[in-house]
Amino acid sequence: MRVLLTGDRGILGTVVRTELELRGHQVTGYDIASGDDIRDAAAVRAAASGHDAIVHLAGLPGDRDDPDQVMSINLVGTWNVLLAAESAGVERVVYCSSGKALGLLERDPDYLPVDDAHRGLPSKPYALSKWLAEEMCEAFTRESGISTICLRPVFVADAGAWASLVQATELPPAPGRAWHLATFVDVRDVATAFAAALECPDPGHVRLLLSSGEIGADRPTVELVAEHVPEVPWTRGEPSPASRESLIDASAARTVLGWVPQYGWADRGGQQIRENG
Q1: Residue 207: phi, psi to the nearest 5?
Q2: What is the per-residue pLDDT for 178?
Q3: Are 84 and 54 in contact (CB under 8 A)?
Q4: At 195, which helix (H) or strand (E)?
Q5: How many CA atoms lie within 13 A of 110 on its CB side?
Q6: pLDDT of residue 276
Q7: How far, in Å, CA of 215 to CA of 213, rounded?
Q8: Quick check: 209 and 265 in contact, CB under 8 A?
C-alpha cells in the first residue's frame, strides 16, 4: 500500500514508519522538519496524490505550546489532510488522536475501566483539539464514505518516557487535579496498531483507545483506585485484590484491529528499546 505519513520524523513517526516499511508498505513522509507545513492545504493535497491511505501523526503534542498554535496546527492540519484524502481518492485515513481527547486529565472518569464509549468533555487546548478532530473525522466519513480510524494512545512510552514513568511515585494528586490512571502503552505497540489500522477490514469511522493491559505501577489496581478515585464506580466489578489490570479498556482495538499489546510493565521498556534500535 502507498501511504502518506505526516509527522514521519517525530518520535512516534520514526517508529511507525519503520513498522510500515517492514510490512511492505511504500511510505512517503511529510514533516515540518523536512519543510512540509501541514497547514499548507495545496501542499498537503499535492503530497496525497497517488497514495492509497494517509496516516496522520503531525501536530503539536501538548499544552506547553501556544494554544493558538495547537488549535491551528492540530485542527486546520487535520482538515487539510481530510480534504486531501478526498481529492486523492484514498481508501482510509488513520488519525493519531489521544486518550486525552476524553478530558480525563481534567476530571475524574465517570466509571472504571474507561472505554471508548466514555463521554468526552475536554477543555484544555490539546485535548480539545484531539476531540474536535475526531468529530471532524466522523463527519468526513459520513459525507465521503472514506474510512477514518482515530487511534487514542494513552501515555506513549518510548525510551525517554519509560525512564520518567519508572521513576515516578504514586502519590495522591494535588487538589483539583485528576489522576492519570497509571496508564501507558509502549511506542512499539502503538506502531503496530497504526499498521493494523491500515490493514484491517473497513470499519467506517471508529475511535480506539490504545493502552497496555496493565497499569504502570507495582501496586494492585484496586489499591490505587481506593487511594485516588474511591467514589468512581466499576462497571463490571472490581478486579481481584492482587490484579494490576489496566483502568483503560482497549478491547475495541483488539476487536476492530486484531491488536494485542506485546510490551508491559515488566519490560520497563528502556533497555529493550535501546537494544532493539
Answers
A1: -125, 125
A2: 79
A3: yes
A4: helix 187-199
A5: 9
A6: 34
A7: 7
A8: no
Output the CA torsion 29→31→35→40 (10° steps).
100
Q: What angle do CA 265, 58, 180 make, to 5 degrees?
A: 35
Predicted pLDDT of residue 273 = 35
- Can you count the helices (H) and strands (E) in the chain? 10, 8
Count of Cβ atoms closer than 10 Å to residue 268 Cβ? 16
Number of other CB atoms surrounding residue 12 within 10 Å: 19
Q: What is the 3-state secondary structure (H, E, C) of 205-226?
A: EEEEEECCCECCCCCCHHHHHH
The H or E element containing residue 95 is: strand 92-96
- What residue type is assigned to position 18 of the chain? T
Asked whether the bond before 113 is cis by omega within 30 degrees of 0, the reply is yes
User: CA-to-CA distance for 157 and 189, rounded, in angstroms?
Assistant: 10
CA 220-239-231 angle, to 5 degrees, is 85
Residue 116 C-alpha cell reads as 471508548
Helix (H) or strand (E) holding 85: helix 77-88
Within the chain, which residues score under 50 in pLDDT? Answer: 270-277
What's the predicted TM-score (pTM) here?
A: 0.93
Q: How far apart are CA 151 and CA 148, in angstroms?
A: 10
